[in-house]
Amino acid sequence: MQLSCPMPKLDFDKITLGHGGGGTLSNKLLEKTVFELLGNDLLDKHHDGAIFDWEGKTAFTTDSFVISPLFFPGGNIGELAVNGTVNDLAMCGAKPKYLSLSFIIEEGLLVEEFWKIVVSIKEATEAAGVKIITGDTKVVEHGKGDKIFINTTGIGKILPNADININRVEEADVIIVSDVVASHGIAIMSVRKGLEFESDILSDTRPLHTAVESLITQFGKDIHLLKDPTRGGLASVLNEIARDSSRGIYLEEQKIPIDDQVKAACEILGLDPLYVANEGIFITVVKESISEEVVQHLRKQPHCTNASIIGQVVNDHPKQVVIKSGIGGKRIVNMLVGQQLPRIC
Amino acid sequence: MKFLSEYRDGDLAKKLLDEITSVVTKPWSIMEVCGGQTHSLVKHGILDLLPSEVNMIHGPGCPVCVTPMHLIDKAIYLAEEKGAILCSYGDMLRVPGAQKSLLDSKALGADIRILYSPLEAVEIAKSNPDKEVVFFAVGFETTAPANALSVLQAAESGVNNYSILTSHVLVPPAIEAVMDDEECNIDGFLAAGHVCTIMGISEYGPIVDKYNIPIVVTGFEPIDLLQGILMVVKQLEQGSSELENQYSRVVRTEGNLKAMEMIQNVFEVQDRVWRGIGNIPESGYEINAQYAAYDANLKFKVDIPDSPENEECIAGQVLKGIKKPKDCPQFGKKCKPEFPLGAPMVSSEGACAAYYHFSQAAQALS
């Protein structure tokens, strides 16, 4: 990364309030970083906003990223900010096209860190085939932020044949998860101050649009719903689906794919992997008759090697998610209340 | 995962359940003492797999549930008014104090940190010499050695800005308190495996003899629990009362001598008030005179009175197993995990929270 994108020489090593003032300092910082790395025909106009032609059915989404630490095993806040919004568009059945990019920087952030973040934004946009076409940078006083916050807003075109809608979730539909769960949350936890532990667990931050596009191209309207279980994990997203579709969801715990190390970390930390955050997986609810085919197809797509059927939509227990444990017992899986807190023993 | 998956084996679980069903001939009430066991019973859906004759009663072994409210208020006071860095295990944070929880206080700007080990708190104290660092030392005998070790380490390395706010409770006196209550209807106990890992099992022999009840030291995985339940039921059906150890792969009869030595070095047994239950003689640890400098209760002399519990909360009777959470008129109404009236609705190890999830499941699956 550093070889292909050497950091430019700047006469300051920390970002200060002046860099958000809109004057010379702002220009100096942004020209040599954001515009240099992310430039394209629309962004290069430096106008108040981007002007472009657009038609057809559209998806539009926004997300803010406030993660600590900024750099974690498997990624950093920059690529997370791109992938998060790209994936939200993909979950609408859209092909992501343009993103806006806003920084709120806490005074004192090292330029070197900012550079690394922007480089990874560049790489993530290239991987996702999207352009940053407008943006904003503000700097706040020390103590008023947490190094850097990023907001991205995205727009994309709905894929032909896509019909993603909660109302299309029907009884007997099958629920498929695209890959192993809980990696992102545990990777972050492994480097969070006071909770550090050694592991090889990496965040799963990555774009999912290619897998989604191929799924919709292949199976069209038989893909009824797509959702990415980020904060609150699998449990919270499945509860949302149950609530919003007024149907029940029945899961089998043993079928949920999870990496052994992540599973072990969850056991040690007293966390339930169903509630741990993900950044690079999705859940799809599909017509029962194509479910096996969808799994086989997904497993050939990028980042979906462990795609698995994990459950089914049922008419029993409407609005509730029930899970069958490994020993055959059943329990309700509730929405996460507040944040997940590690247990004492 | 080795050493785990074999204790969650579906076929083995079914065999044990079949055996329990074939052995049991009449109703029995069995208390699992430890909140970790309650959590596991609920998480793996064991309660609805057991034959109807086996009535599991959830015990007082939820450390955050029995920590007195005034100690939570004191922890908040130390963080807010004394500017201390207050370190705690995670599930203590949501438990309501008189006015607010530690989580509320954190949101208002107090420096409250979630840790997995008190030894990290000693490190925090070393790197913040101008601040007082207090670890909220909550728990049963299981967490006592680590808390004792943190005091020993602080003393050894001359760290003077570290102290612990102790709320240590002990299992054997709690079992006696449950048995001594005239409304008690417990026929047998699953003792807490991890507590016995530290303390050994000898403390339970006299209780077995005194009350003529079976006690089986039991682990936390589904197979452990089913095996423990089977062992208790077998004893009850045969009319015997013995001390048995289901968790022998972890629990040695004599316990962990090194851990016990650390506890003895730093703590002494004293009377303790259990939230919801009241005073139980000789049921807790306090720091001894030698290490008094590390006792946050002595270091910060503030008198925070115990506030009255919410009148509508029946946590005490629930913790003693006299009432089930569903007997509470506010259960699932005014009192839910997101708006708890009492501590047992907060922790995933609390009986009310466990029942809240379980009863929903029972309703949904009926």
- Average pLDDT of chain B works out at 92
Give the biggest sheet of chain B. 6 strands, mixed
Give me the Rg of chain B, rounded: 21 Å
What form of chain B results from the Cα inertia axes?
Answer: globular
Major β-sheet strand ordering of chain B: 4-3-5-6-11-10
Count of strand segments of chain A: 13
CATH C-level label of the largest domain in chain B:
Alpha Beta
In the CATH hierarchy, what is the architecture of the largest domain in chain B at level 2?
3-Layer(aba) Sandwich
CATH architecture of the largest domain in chain A, by name, is: Alpha-Beta Complex
Strand order of the largest sheet of chain A: 8-10-7-11-9-12-13
Q: Could you name the CATH topology of the largest domain in chain B?
A: Rossmann fold
CATH class of the largest domain in chain A: Alpha Beta
| Assembly state | heterodimer
Helix content of chain A: 25-40%
Sheet having the most strands of chain A: 7 strands, mixed
Query: CATH homologous superfamily name of the largest domain in chain B?
Result: HypD, alpha/beta domain 2
The secondary-structure class of chain A comes to alpha+beta
Number of DSSP E strands of chain B: 11
- Low-confidence stretches of chain B at least 5 residues in length (pLDDT < 50)? none
Percent of residues in β-strands of chain B:
15-25%
Classified in CATH, the superfamily of the largest domain in chain A is PurM-like C-terminal domain
